[in-house]
Amino acid sequence: MCKLTRRNLLRLALASGGAGVAAAATLLYGRRVEPYGLVVERVEARPAGLPRELDGLTLGLLSDLHRGAYASEAFIESAARALMNLSPDLIALTGDFVHGYNFQGPSVARALRALHAPLGIYAVMGNHDHWLDHEAIESALRRQFADQSFEVLRNMRVRLDAHGVPLHIVGVDDVMVGRDDLGRALAGIPDRQPAILLAHEPDFADTASRRYPFLLQVSGHSHGGQVRLPFIGAPILPPLGEKYPIGLQQAGDMLVYTSRGLGMIYPPVRFMCPPEVTLITLRA
Known about the structure:
Layout: H1 6-16, H2 19-32, E1 39-45, E2 58-62, H3 73-84, E3 90-93, H4 105-111, E4 121-123, H5 127-131, H6 134-144, E5 150-152, E6 156-162, E7 165-171, H7 182-186, E8 195-198, H8 205-211, E9 216-219, E10 247-251, E11 254-258, E12 276-282
Parallel strand pairs: 1-12, 2-3, 3-4, 4-5, 7-8, 8-9, 9-11
Antiparallel strand pairs: 2-12, 6-7, 10-11
Helix pairs in contact: 1-2, 3-4, 4-6
């Protein structure tokens, strides 16, 4: 029996000679295959002004888990294990932990239990978390990571000693629901010390880059569009995920990386936009 891949499905469709068959085969692939074909992305980011001591620092990124009907606990657990195989120095979780009205906060926390990093795990909430129960999600995550360095960054920052130099991990609460307060998050930070920003919505990068010389912003929210077409890209993108929808881009004087995420929203289809686990290596 041939393996169910995008190439084989397209060959089947072409051999059948029918546009309807081609559409059905593509839909089958987008619903049943690609959403669970986890891809490990290894990214080198070269932000301006990176201290040489931070050259080689690694950040693991998981985003948009959307634990619910389209993302099982086992699938998210497999992504967490894949990230741990990369041995990141620190881990960022950039929101939308749950999806739908059947609350899955404890389940998503359990699915992430393999995570650990020497410089800690840091999270921000997304719009779906606020639409459901962000306080319960935070509580479940804090219980899960009670024995290690973990923080949910609600308009706050944490100062790390990374390779002998200060590094600030800054997080803003969700922008779409109006909970962000970057001024509060930056309060008291020494001028121009290196900092990384966690923000669920990637297009916040334009605001962030005007306020502080961040090395990097890491985000999710857009899912890369979930569907990307040749020569077109993503036909549909969410608000605040339209300018920086996928991958590594320049935003003013800083870099922004947008993950395709793990889970999906409706319609539950991925095409040419598989779920990802990300390891970002900072390079001077």
